Request: fold
Amino acid sequence: MDAIILQTLNGLDKGSAYALIALGLTLIFGTLGVVNFAHGALFMIGAFCAVTLQRILSLSHEVIDESRKDFLGNPLKVDIPYMHEWLGPDLGQAVINWSVPLAILFSIPIMIAVGYAMERGLIKHFYKRPHADQILVTFGLAIVLQEIIKYFFGANPIPTPAPPAFNGSFDFGVLIGADPFTIMYPYWRLVYFAFAMILIAAVFAFLQFTTFGMVVRAGMADRETVGLLGINIDKRFTVMFAIAACVAGLAGVMYTPINSPNYHMGMDFLVLSFVVVVVGGMGSLPGAVLAGFLLGILESFASMAEVIDIIPGINQIIIYLVAIVILLTRPRGLMGRKGVMEE
Reply:
């Protein structure tokens, strides 16, 4: 039972990242009909927004500390963060420690601007081109963005810690009446899962309960008819591309304490996220979220030592095996619209 609970929690953690990236991918495909292979790069850019803000907040300068001496009796030079001078040592250090949550606010305008520039500058020219052309150009864009990040931040992972308040693990054993310290799970991973659920709910609420969202949903169902009503649906779809970029970026921001950002992290998630989108159903937002969590849990259980001992390497291919089975039996995916990918 302990192992089942832990693997379920691990699956929900992985599934949160899959679902958020797949949600953005589905928004773009459902509104614009574009297969965006640069979407993983947006996840990476969000992560490096957190890295950038942490470096900005940690900027320091040398001062002479008369109260500290070296072995010759000379005053020591010490680095003092500007935040300590501006806000005081306690508040200044607290701001530095909470750089990852603060990066949410920092990254939102950046990700919206990146998404808008990407759609207006490149993607719009490929709306009526074959999907193969869209894949090639967006994959090329992803490589370019990846190399830019590598140039400025280097090739090595950059540790980005969570706030000290979320260090340690939560004792699930006590919560369910089991022995203490038998089921421990990191606090930040629970925070990430809660953040993902809030963000997913916000996207669905925006589409369901706002006039803008209702027009977008109508445009996804019948773009031509909405255009005939005098509504500039293209402009609204551009906004949705920026929102999808923002969702991917925020997913990357909050994932940095779990997986230290590196220049290829976007590619690592991209292929899996496309599998999630296809399994859930191309163009189906609920399907993308459902498939993200289901495949995350399935991958987690396939990673158990007992399973790997029986079928070595199954954890590396289980998601793809499930995708093959679903596409053979239900080509449109779990919740895909009838006729999509079934021709």
User: Anything to note?
Assistant: Residues 2-58+99-329 form a domain with the ABC transporter involved in vitamin B12 uptake, BtuC fold (CATH 1.10.3470). The mean pLDDT is 86. The chain has one domain: 2-58+99-329. The longest helix spans residues 2-32.
